Structures are given as structure tokens and as C-alpha cells.
Amino acid sequence: MRDVWISGAGMTAIGRRTEPLQSLMAEAALSALLMAERERPDAIVVAAMNPEEFVGDGNFASNVATHMGFAEVPTVRIETATSSGAAALYAGFAEVAAGLHRTVLVVGGEKMTHLATPRVSELIGRSIDPYERLYGATMPALAGLITRALMARNAVGLREIAQVAVKNHANAAKNPYAHYRQPITIEDVMTSRMVADPLRLLHCCPISDGGAAVVLTSDRIGVRIAGIGQGTDTLAVRHRQNLTSFRATQVAARVAFAMAGFGPERVDFAELHDAFTPFELIALEDIGLIPVGKASRATLDGETALDGRLPINPSGGLKARGHPLAATGLAQIVECVWQLLGRAEGRQLEGHTALAHSIGGLATNNWVTVLERL
Amino acid sequence: MIVAPPASYCPRHPARMLPTELPGAGEIVSFTTLHSPPEGFKSPLHIAIVELEGGARFVCHGAETRGLKIGSTVAIEAVNNVYYFSSLGALDRARIFWRRAGRAGDRVNAIARSVVKRVWTGTSSG
């Protein structure tokens, strides 16, 4: 297997965008290609969770490639719900590692804010088990069930899950690409509208538009993908015996670290999938970045803040950078690459090793990627 | 593994599933109240995961979650193919205990049914 390097990383500003999805993805792709100093990739992998419903376009690999002027470049589309961006990275990684292509562009994007919120929630909710959906289960509802179980078992309190939001908004305030750039307080979180008891509005990520892209190459340049792993679980949450940790994350981390040849102790900072703030606490422990039962204490103590021992979500995370579905898994990689190469102005971290974690559906199809600057 | 509703294959193995019957009482695994439920549901919408004997987990609706805790014993009952949970009174809990100690056949189902009827008669099933 060949080593795979990320030579370019680019993204759009995340938020409420008026441009068509194809334009957002082209903007991200061209900025990644510019950084990689490549005019044209040998192949393209496109990530989009549901452009058929969100923007009404199908055959989306060809659609995006043609829009960018790469109609003659071989292109495929990859989809694993909300982790599609990370899955596309895996597909691109496999193409380069196998020696099929030398340079692969991986680009993800989603455009949703032009639709009414109930419609967006319904479309995202289609990744939930159909029987659970019959009972009105939405992503926030299932996350609410998981949060209550977490709070009962691990002494995680309302303050801890609010602090994750406060920290990630503080980080996003320093990120010009973030959806929400205003800091918030614990009181703001704890008095925001109740969504799915005990989860309130400010525990949940926003609906965002945006695109993100990376250029992968077998040339030794930029940041190396040291390990990448996938983990899966049942579509139905009720078929899992344990609600307070995600098998899909645990397996993905195990596979990624096995490929990397080292463990979580080497990770300097991480981008974690905090679609709901308790998920950041669950991921910290599932991945092994923080010992089991200690994630909430570490968060309250500031260990995961930008100036802490282990900065988590320097970009602001899904919570505040925003969550344009299929762009998200790649936006996490973009942030890690920029940080590792000293391009994260205003929020620059020290470090050689970064980790990105993406959740597909309600943790049915998760990914962990470990990146290393040599 | 016991799953509900009935499925053709085990979610974790490509093995055929067989039908079985369970008493209609179990423990609350977790619950939430959804304040902006999807179209077609009334707000607030109370949803719980209830674990029955043998580990089968059901998603259920309920009339309220006041006083409910993780681990609370509840009855579940299908009304128009939708499962509902309801808190059990002390007498019902005692009857369940006796059944476990002795052998009272399907009495739990009967208890659960009567409890659920009390709660749900005359209310909409959402």
C-alpha cells in the first residue's frame, strides 16, 4: 500500500449561502487545488448526502465534475449519511494507496438553508431506522435519549454539556470560515429553547451550507494520512445494548490507530463530531483520548480548550463552525491540515498529529482519520 | 437477540428470526420529550426506549414523563399498532413480582392492558 499525502486543503465559509451547491463545491475544490499547485486531478471523489432532495439534482458526480470543468476526469460519488465527507476521503485514500491514481480530488458539500427547517429535519431524519421514525424519532430525539442515559450513568451534568457549546463557540469566534462567530455563555445555553429534553437549542449544531475539499497524492508532500478507519452499528438505536458509547466510533478508532501504528496518546488535537454537544464527550472516551468517565471533568477543567492540553474542535466543531452534512467530514480534515501546516491564523495550535472523527446517521457509520506532519 | 417489531433477519448476523411472546412490562432505558416533533405528531411528544424481559427494546410513546426515571418499571401496550408505555402502580408491581416468583402465565399482559386502557381511553393515539 502506498503512503497517501494531503497536498491541498480548502473550504468555503460555512453558513447561510446563496450560491448553488455546485458553485460552493467548485470554490472549495479550486482552493484545495491551488494550495496543492495542481491544475487538474487524475480522479475525483464527490461527497453529497442528499442533493436529490435538497437541491433537486441527481447523477451528482458527473454534475459536479462538469460544473468545475472536469467533465473528462473520472468521478464517483460516495454516501454514508452525515459522514459522507469522511467516507469520500476513504475512497480517495484507497484509490491513491492502491496505485490507481496519483492525485485525487475529494470534494464534499451540502446546501440546505434555502429549505424550511422542518423539511430539512425530515430529510436528515431519513437516515434513522424507519420503525423508529414511525414514532416521531428525529436526530434530536434520539440524541436526547442518549444524553439522558449518559447523564444517568456517567455523572455528566447539564453544566458539562453546556460547556462544550461555550468552548466550541469561543473557538469559532476565531475562525473566519465558521457559521457562528459570536461567543456564548453557559447561561445562554441553559436558557435556550428546549428541543428534546434534556437537549436545548444551543446543544445542537445549526443547519449550514458549504463545501470542503482536499487533494490526495502519493507524492511525499504536506500531511500524511497515517491511519483511517470505519466502524459501523445497527441502523436502529433500540437494537444497541449500550446507548452511552458508540461501537461505530470505537471500531473506527481501533482500525485507524492500528493502521497508524500508534495510539491516542500521540494525538495533539482533534476535530470531533459534536452535532449534539454530549457527542463530543462520548467521542473523547470512545476514541481513547480521555479515560472513560473523565471527559466531562476534562472539559470543565479546560483541558479541551484552545489553550488546553488537548484542544478539541479548534474550528468550532459542527456546533459553531457549522454542519453542511457531506462537507463536514472534509472540513474537519481541512482544519487539521491547516493547523498542522501553520495556516490556521488566529487559532494556530502546536502539534504534529491530529485526529478527525465523523458520525454517519445516529452513529451507524463512523470514521476516524489520523493525520501526521513529518 | 430479541427485536421488535419482528424482523426477518438478526441485525447482527444473517440468521433467520423466530417469533416469540413477551410479558408487557419492562424497564425504562431512556426517555425524552420532543418539543418540535415532525409533522403528524402532537407537541410535546414523549418517547421512551423500554427494555422487556430477554433484552428486547421497544420504542414507545407515553402520555407523560413526570416522575419517570431510567430504570422505572412500566407497562407497554400496543394501541392501533403503536406501543405506549405507562407507569405501573404499586399493586401492579407486586403482581409482577408474584408472577416472577410463581407462575401466572400471561397475567402481566392482562395487567398491562388494564393499566394502559385506564390511561388511554378517550385520548388520541397521535
Number of helices of chain A: 14
Question: Based on CA inertia axes, which overall geometry of chain B fits?
Answer: globular
Tell me the number of structural domains of chain A: 1
What is the CATH architecture annotation of chain B? Beta Barrel
> Which runs of chain B of at least 5 residues are low in confidence (pLDDT < 50)?
101-126
In CATH, the topology of chain B is named OB fold (Dihydrolipoamide Acetyltransferase, E2P)
**Would you identify the regions of chain A where 5 or more consecutive residues have pLDDT less than 50?**
none
Strand order of the largest sheet of chain A: 3-2-4-7-1-8-11-10-9
Give the second-level CATH assignment, the architecture of chain A.
3-Layer(aba) Sandwich
Structural class of chain A: alpha/beta
Tell me about the biggest sheet of chain A? 9 strands, mixed
Helix-strand sequence of chain A? EHEHHEHEHHHHHEEEEHEHHHHEE
Largest sheet of chain B: 5 strands, mixed, barrel
Reading off the top of the CATH hierarchy, the class of chain A is best stated as Alpha Beta
How many separate helices of chain B? Answer: 2
Helical fraction of chain A: 25-40%
Strand content of chain B: 25-35%
H/E series of chain B, N to C?
Answer: EEEEEHH
Explain what you see.
- The complex is a heterodimer of chains A (374) and B (126).
- Chain A is an alpha/beta fold.
- Chain A has 14 helices and eleven strands.
- In chain A, the strands form two sheets. A nine-stranded mixed beta sheet of chain A has the order 3-2-4-7-1-8-11-10-9, sandwiched between helices. Chain A has a two-stranded antiparallel sheet with strand order 5-6.
- In chain A, helix 4 packs across helix 14 and helix 8 packs across helix 11.
- Chain A is globular.
- By secondary structure, chain B is of the alpha+beta class.
- Chain B has one domain: OB fold (Dihydrolipoamide Acetyltransferase, E2P), CATH 2.40.50.
- Chain B has two helices and five strands; from the N terminus they run E-E-E-E-E-H-H.
- Chain B has a five-stranded mixed beta barrel.
- Chains A and B meet through helix 5, helix 6, helix 7 and strand 5 of A and strand 1, strand 2 and strand 3 of B.
